[in-house]
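Example for tutorial group B:
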């Protein structure tokens, strides 16, 4: 049996791992790579003569840990390049992946239209060139027709010699650790792909489940060398920020937030805050149609959320809606918020302030000393969010160089990734004498290196940090 690391290898995004038995090929995750820019992706695809470094038609099955686009975003392209098999995931992952892939297809279509308009004017062959990894809604629908939802804890056979079980990973609704049992040459081997590991006591989500003893563990390491700083409850942390930025002074609070997962945790926490009627009334604008659609998925799957959320639902009927919440659907409504002069809260995507409607809100308020931009999660190096967190005096937004007069704050109680202690807790379930190998993925190089040392200090001997394209015999 062979395992090849084709993504999230010494980087955070693009999760994609190929597991091959004698006669069966399984792809675990098929994510978009955001660590490469457009030129880098184009160069790689031209060298491969494909979006993929393997023949997509030879893949038998895809296993999807969760919906986030760095894990799911290349699935439509897999079908474009000849894949004809199933994508196996949980029911909420199917629902959220559908929203995310259709949103990506819509973005691709807009970019294609812009390219075509440019080429019509300039008659440039280069302008007419369509990127190899672009897909449209037709490709998404073709892919979704082949998704197979499987329940947590259900043993599911994907081949004569391979069964799988999904265990709840926290992190996102429907997110899973995947444990495979492979029978080969009269032996049974267990391999676990962690997906993204959540944290305990996170708003809405159940805690990550323990997995059984395995032979090989592929483990994410996003926070492999970091601990979460904020130890208080999300309600306390967020209420403190709101009081200081919108009540003690008549200010405006802008919260960049990922539409799927993070925004739902925020809205639920705000709902709890405003259930305390002593808290002053402030309008809350949720500015992301994708977030609105995702919130409906969370509401439909309320029985898969944690006990606190289920109890809140039973007592109050709605997890997310409250009187002062306004969903902004159209781009005109989004722009009009700039004319609202009362203290307010604006939640908008994306969480790293890289694309999305949040850029216009940051642009409109970056020079306002009464505005606060609250970062609530991880921001990759080089993104606008990363530059804000690193205290730059001026910032470039949409080609404009603007002074940073707004207040920049951060809290990490809403980070959906487990920190070093959470990751170690996940690994230490495994007996060091029985675990044959750990492979670290989905992290920056320094984070992986530091986490590798930490794991080895705990008695685990074989801890690898694979390069992209490296194959291991299991």
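The residue assignment follows.
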């Amino acid at each position: 049996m062979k395992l090849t690391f084709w993504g999230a290898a010494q980087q955070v995004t693009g999760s994609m791992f190929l597991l091959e038995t004698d006669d069966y090929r399984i792809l675990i995750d098929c994510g978009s790579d955001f660590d490469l820019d457009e030129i880098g992706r184009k160069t790689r695809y031209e060298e491969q003569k494909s979006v993929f470094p393997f023949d997509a038609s030879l893949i038998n099955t895809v296993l999807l840990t969760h919906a986030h686009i760095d894990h799911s975003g290349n699935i439509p392209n897999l079908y474009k390049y000849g894949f004809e098999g199933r994508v196996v995931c949980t029911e909420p992952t199917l629902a959220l992946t559908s929203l995310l892939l259709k949103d990506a297809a819509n973005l691709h279509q807009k970019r294609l239209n812009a390219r075509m308009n440019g080429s019509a004017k300039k008659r440039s062959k280069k302008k007419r060139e369509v990127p190899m990894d672009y897909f449209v809604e037709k490709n998404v629908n073709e892919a979704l027709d082949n998704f197979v939802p499987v329940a947590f804890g259900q043993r599911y056979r994907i081949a004569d010699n391979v069964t799988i079980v999904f265990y709840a990973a926290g992190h996102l609704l429907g997110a899973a650790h995947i444990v495979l049992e492979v029978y080969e040459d009269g032996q049974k081997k267990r391999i676990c792909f962690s997906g993204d590991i959540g944290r305990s006591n996170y708003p809405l989500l159940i805690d990550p489940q323990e997995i059984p003893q395995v032979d090989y563990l592929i483990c994410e390491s996003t926070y492999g060398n970091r601990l979460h700083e904020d130890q208080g409850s999300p309600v306390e942390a967020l209420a403190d920020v709101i009081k200081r930025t919108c009540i003690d002074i008549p200010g405006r609070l802008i919260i960049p937030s990922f539409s799927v997962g993070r925004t739902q945790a925020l809205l639920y926490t705000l709902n709890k805050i405003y259930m305390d009627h002593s808290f002053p009334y402030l309008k809350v604008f949720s500015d992301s149609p994708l977030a609105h659609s995702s919130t409906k998925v969370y509401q439909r799957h309320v029985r898969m959320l944690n006990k606190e959320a289920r109890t809140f639902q039973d007592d109050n009927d709605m997890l997310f809606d409250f009187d002062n919440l306004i969903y902004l659907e159209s781009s005109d409504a989004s722009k009009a918020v700039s004319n609202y002069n009362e203290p307010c809260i604006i939640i908008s995507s994306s969480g790293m302030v890289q694309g999305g409607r949040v850029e216009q809100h940051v642009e409109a308020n970056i020079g306002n000393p009464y505005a606060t931009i609250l970062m609530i999660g991880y921001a990759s190096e080089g993104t606008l969010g990363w530059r804000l967190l690193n205290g730059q005096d001026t910032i470039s937004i949409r080609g404009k160089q603007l002074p940073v007069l707004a207040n920049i704050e951060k809290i990490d109680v809403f980070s959906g990734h487990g920190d070093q202690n959470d990751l170690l807790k996940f690994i230490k379930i495994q007996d060091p004498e029985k675990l044959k190998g750990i492979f670290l993925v989905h992290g920056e190089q320094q984070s992986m290196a530091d986490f590798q040392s930490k794991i080895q200090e705990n008695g685990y001997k074989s801890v690898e940090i694979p390069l992209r394209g490296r194959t291991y015999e299991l």
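DSSP finds 15 helices and 22 strands in the chain. Compare this with the pattern of hydrophobic and polar residues in the output above.
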